[in-house]
Design goal:
Length: 206
């Protein structure tokens, strides 16, 4: 560590004279600019441009900072503050009761039920009149009369002729038993009389 400090001081000693020279030249230039010029020339004085300074040696390395020492925990002189309280929410303010609305005119009447007119009875249908006479009834199928067979010659039996054929026997009809009269358990109901809601229609005249 001692050798590094001595080398750094020697470098700064070598660089001290050029820096002092630069500072002095800058001061001279500033003073000369601040003084009033005695010349009557139109050209303004321009100081000579100083050439850029080139270091003969590399610049010093940046200082190495050691990490800061750890901070000791802070001890409160008084007890720690209490935990934060929850925000206060005031209870809701009840809204004032609404006054009943007074109509400027009487209230409207209640809605009426829709009117359904009674069903109109349909007029009686007139009998249909054909424009032409009705078609004739269907005819019965035509059966032609039987063709008479030619007369047969009488057969001459070699033996006596057979007896004439007998008529088929038809037994007499059996009389059906007499029907007992039907006794009603109660009298039959009278036919219903239709009551018109409106006067009956006039009779139809043909």
């Amino acid at each position: 560590m001692g050798s590094s400090k001595s080398s750094f001081s020697t470098k700064m000693g070598k660089m001290g004279s050029p820096i002092a020279f630069l500072v002095s030249t800058l001061l001279v230039v500033l003073v000369s600019l601040s003084l009033p010029s005695k010349t009557t020339a139109n050209d303004a004085y321009s100081p000579p441009v100083s050439p850029p300074y080139h270091y003969k040696s590399p610049p010093p390395p940046p200082p190495v900072h050691s990490p800061p020492p750890p901070k000791e925990p802070y001890h409160y002189k008084s007890p720690p503050p209490p935990p934060p309280k929850e925000p206060y929410h005031p209870p809701p303010v009840p809204s004032p009761p609404k006054e009943p609305y007074h109509y400027k005119s009487p209230p409207p009447p209640p809605p009426k039920k829709p009117y359904h007119p009674p069903p109109v009875p349909s007029p009686p249908k007139e009998p249909y009149h054909y424009k032409s006479p009705p078609p004739p009834p269907p005819k019965k199928p035509y059966y032609p009369p039987p063709v008479p067979s030619p007369p047969k010659e009488p057969y001459h039996y070699k033996s006596p002729p057979p007896p004439p054929p007998k008529k088929p026997y038809h037994p007499p009809p059996v009389p059906s038993p007499p029907k007992e009269p039907y006794h009603y358990k109660s009298p039959p109901p009278p036919p219903p009389v239709y009551k018109y809601k409106s006067p009956p229609p006039p009779p139809h005249h043909y």
